[in-house]
TrEMBL record:
Gene Ontology molecular function: 4 iron, 4 sulfur cluster binding; [formate-C-acetyltransferase]-activating enzyme activity; lyase activity; metal ion binding
The EC number(s) this enzyme carries: 1.97.1.4
Required cofactor(s): [4Fe-4S] cluster
Alphabetical UniProt keywords: 4Fe-4S, Iron, Iron-sulfur, Lyase, Metal-binding, Oxidoreductase, Pyruvate, S-adenosyl-L-methionine
PANTHER family to which the protein is assigned, alphabetical: GLYCYL-RADICAL ENZYME ACTIVATING ENZYME YJJW-RELATED, PYRUVATE FORMATE-LYASE-ACTIVATING ENZYME
Protein name, entry field: Pyruvate formate lyase-activating enzyme
SUPFAM superfamilies in UniProt: Radical SAM enzymes
InterPro entries: Organic_radical-activating, rSAM_sf
Organism for this UniProt entry: Salmonella enterica I
Record carries keyword Lipid biosynthesis: no
UniProt KW Nucleotidyltransferase keyword: no
């Protein structure tokens, strides 16, 4: 997990890496940081976002959300088996976090990573779209996989093309997902 602090209408971006999801007690650092930002007259204008893999417990989210403006979360695959193959983790808890955050108006962005031949979004497009539309008006960012900075088996995977990303976008739009954000750049 990392926190991302945006200064609205400026080019300043700060990122603070945190192992909060591997060590759940570390989210307290983010709570303290965001609390200090919100209490400081010169910093109050900052937007405090968390970039998360969704593994924080509900109790952790409840403590973080009062001082957090939103959370950006990745759903790497629809079915747990596929998600586990890609990440080594089941996605049941991640889906719970997504629902939990959306219900509280704190899901700033849901991200789907398009990895040709690896993800199962197309095979489960109806279920995926129904899940997304049940969340309300949440922005969904479609990210195109590229192998830059990747290691292991994934280094040999092909990058996603604009056509592959558009195909997923078209399928989601046809099923009622309206707030899609497409990649600005394909590597």
């Amino acid at each position: 997990m990392c926190c991302v602090i945006f200064v609205k209408h400026r080019c300043l971006l700060k990122v603070l890496p945190s192992a909060a999801e591997r060590r759940p007690r570390n989210y307290r650092l983010l709570v303290a940081l965001f609390t200090a930002i919100k209490a400081d007259p010169q910093l109050q204008r900052l937007t405090c976002l968390v970039d998360s893999n969704g593994q924080l417990s509900e109790t952790g989210w409840q403590k973080l959300l009062p001082v957090c403006d939103g959370v950006m979360l990745d759903l790497k695959a629809w079915k747990s088996e596929c998600h586990h193959r890609l990440t080594g983790r089941d996605n049941t808890h991640i889906k719970h976090s997504i629902r939990f955050l959306a219900a509280r108006g704190k899901l700033a962005e849901l991200r789907l990573l398009v990895i040709p031949g690896q993800v199962d979004y197309a095979a489960h497009i109806d279920s995926l779209a129904a899940f997304i539309t049940s969340l309300g008006e949440v922005p969904v960012r479609l990210n195109a996989f590229h192998a830059h900075g990747v290691y292991g088996e994934a280094k040999a995977w092909p990058g996603a093309t604009p056509q592959e990303v558009e195909r997923l976008a078209d399928g989601l739009r046809a099923r009622g997902v309206a707030k899609l954000i497409l990649p600005a750049l394909y590597l």
